[in-house]
Write a structure and sequence with these properties.
- It contains no helices and 25 strands.
- The chain is an all-beta fold.
């Protein structure tokens, strides 16, 4: 019996499921290596267990995913150079590449979490000295290592996901007030701006930038909601326009505080008349931000 530890799973474009994990079965139970299996029938049957690393060092904390060019990327931690560093390999045309060392600060980096974002850039987050650092890769070049701007506490075990075309969420646990709790940081994708963080068990996470959401529901019958977020207090105008570009309704024209806001439109114009079915536009304007989106009224 051997200890099976950290695992990572992904499904590739062809439907194949890949699972990779670290285990002590490669040598003695004090040495960890990476193993993987695949399934082409949604887990009904699995391939033979294959060993990825075969050396006298520890290889653990895998993170696997597929990029848009159909390469499979595998990140992990290894102490083959004396300290724990992040390495990666790629799999394409049935062959794994040699492991490439990504970090070399000799300060022990581990627990990588990585994704490919919508702009094709790669992002990896990892631990070093009880803090979280990251790198990104564009046009085959990795950026310098950057510290994630968290509060000065013990911050560990990052997990990253892209939740929209321009936002990254990084969830991690942090020791604050003598407890370990989960926290989240949200950021723009390009550029990765100064972020705002908050405990994920609170209802309100302050927005890191201005943004305007798509109205909901859309299409709608008589009533719909428009939501937006302000990263700082601003004078806001929120207006509705018809297909001819004529302003028919002013929903907001006032100073508003930082935060998330929701306003409803009941399909009435500034004169109180219900407008006809059709395509309309809503536009938000602030000193540093403006955006317009389309909505459809169907009675």
């Amino acid at each position: 019996m051997y200890n099976e530890y950290y695992s990572s799973i992904t499904q590739t474009e062809d439907g194949k499921i890949w699972i990779v994990w670290d285990s002590g079965k490669g040598g003695n139970d004090q040495q960890e290596d990476l193993f993987y299996k695949t399934s082409s029938d949604e887990g009904t049957s699995w391939s033979q267990e294959l060993r990825l690393t075969q050396n006298t060092f520890d290889d653990f904390h895998p993170c696997i995913f597929q990029t848009a060019d159909k390469q499979i990327w595998l990140f992990g931690t290894s102490n083959k150079e004396g300290t724990y560093d992040i390495y990666y390999s790629t799999f394409k045309v049935d062959t794994w590449s040699s492991a490439v060392r990504l970090t070399d600060s000799h300060n022990n980096e581990w627990t990588p979490s990585a994704i490919q974002a919508s702009d094709s850039s790669l992002w990896i987050f990892y631990n070093k000295n009880q803090e979280i650092f990251y790198k990104n890769r564009k046009v085959n070049t990795w950026s310098p290592e950057i510290k994630l701007p968290c509060n000065e506490n013990v911050n560990e075990d990052p997990n990253i996901i892209q939740v929209s075309n321009d936002r990254l969420w990084i969830v991690f646990h942090s020791q604050r007030a003598n407890n370990y709790d989960l926290y989240a940081i949200v950021s723009n994708l390009t550029p990765f701006v100064t972020v705002v963080e908050g405990s994920i068990d609170i209802a309100f996470l302050p927005p890191f930038s201005f943004y305007l959401d798509q109205n909901f529901p859309n299409p709608f019958n008589l009533e719909t909601s428009v939501s937006f977020a302000l990263s700082k207090a601003s004078h806001i105008k929120l207006s509705i326009y018809n297909i001819l570009g004529q302003k028919i309704k002013t929903l907001i024209d006032k100073n508003m505080n930082v935060g998330n806001h929701v306003f409803r439109w009941d399909s009435r114009d500034n004169s109180g008349n219900t407008v006809t079915s059709g395509i309309y536009f809503y536009r938000i304007e602030a000193k540093e931000f403006s955006q317009m989106k389309k909505m459809i009224l169907m009675k």
